[in-house]
Specification:
9% strand, 2 domains, 239 residues, Rossmann fold, 6 strands
């Protein structure tokens, strides 16, 4: 995490006390704290040189399990702007509610989260619609999905595990909106609006940043669509 020196915090507090309406830190940049990487990346792309973005989830850390240090709480309290997703990191939610509710963007308000059932609807329709598959073929496909399972498991145990995993995966809403490039771009637009609200002098730059972010994501989406158009299977492996 990028921490702000104590002297810098005092300087920022002094500037705020002047009541001049300028939310920028003493170096002229807007201090933005993001809950985790995809939100930090969006803020960096939109804000450009006008923002100083801190990602409170260290590399390699699981965001859901993040425990905030006192320095993290201080960063949230002293930031000019917060970007987070409610329900993704409970401790972060609590800190924002207590210290920064008036300067935070909850990205779930910018783009509607889909139910897991909506995310998997097309895949389920496809799977159930393959009437040409024999029971033996279906068994082979199931086995391929469980190739790393212990060899001692029976087929019945595999089926039970798959049913359990499917039930767990399709409960509630899917928070991973950034995995869809087009929907991810809506977060960039919301960040631009929020930054413009506290830094009107650079509003045009934020708008341009959001437009460029959307253009890049639209191009990425087109690459995905083109690259997968002639796929031989709907089984796709990613890192």
């Amino acid at each position: 995490m990028l921490t702000v020196p104590a002297a810098g915090l005092l300087a920022a507090a002094a500037l705020a006390a002047c009541g001049d309406g300028d939310s920028a830190s003493s170096d002229g940049e807007i201090d933005v704290v993001a809950a985790f990487y995809p939100l930090a990346f969006a803020a960096e792309q939109v804000g450009g040189d006008h923002v100083n973005v801190s990602n409170l989830t260290p590399a390699g850390q699981e965001p859901h399990d993040l425990e905030l240090a006192p320095s993290d709480i201080a960063a949230i309290e002293e930031a000019d702007y917060i970007v987070y997703l409610e329900g993704f990191m409970p401790e972060f939610d609590e800190a924002v509610s207590e210290y920064a509710s008036d300067k935070a963007l909850e990205v779930g308000s910018a783009v509607e989260l889909l139910d897991y059932s909506e995310d998997t609807e097309n895949l389920e329709d496809h799977d159930h619609g393959e009437e040409s598959h024999s029971e033996d073929e279906h068994g082979e496909e199931s086995h391929s999905h469980d190739e790393h399972a212990e060899e001692s498991h029976s087929e019945g145990e595999h089926a039970e595990e798959e049913d359990h995993d499917h039930e767990h995966a399709t409960e509630g809403t899917d928070p991973h909106v950034w995995l869809d490039p087009i929907r991810y771009s809506a977060i960039g637009e919301a960040v631009a609006d929020g930054l413009a609200g506290i830094d009107e002098a650079n509003a045009e730059a934020y708008t341009t940043g959001a437009e460029d972010f959307t253009a890049a994501l639209t191009e990425l989406d087109a690459e995905f669509t083109e690259g997968l158009a002639n796929r031989a299977s709907d089984d796709i492996v990613t890192s």
